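Lab notes, practical 5.
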Amino acid sequence: MAGVNMNRRVTLETVVRSPDGAGGFSESWQSLGALWAGVEAVGSVTPRARITLRALPATSLARPEPGQRLREGSRLYYLRHVVENARNSRLLICLADIVGGDAP
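Output from the prediction step:
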């Protein structure tokens, strides 16, 4: 894992839908745990980040999936894509939209 600086502690969150009693639902976010990540800004028009994490088994609830988000203080990273690193299968690469906070 040389060359990857995973020095940011982020919280993995998933959306939870609850019935609202009127036939619809409300959404809230639930924490799934903390992870260490390397974050690098990519793109110039839309704020996006390339996030590197240690890989977890596909069956693990702590393995990020598209549609979830990572939280770092007031900054949120909405995960669009999650793939294993082609050169190092012990790493996951996430492409995320950045919302709030300062740029990485």
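Observations recorded by the TA: Residues 8-99 form a domain with the Thrombin, subunit H fold (CATH 2.40.10.270). The chain has one domain: 8-99.
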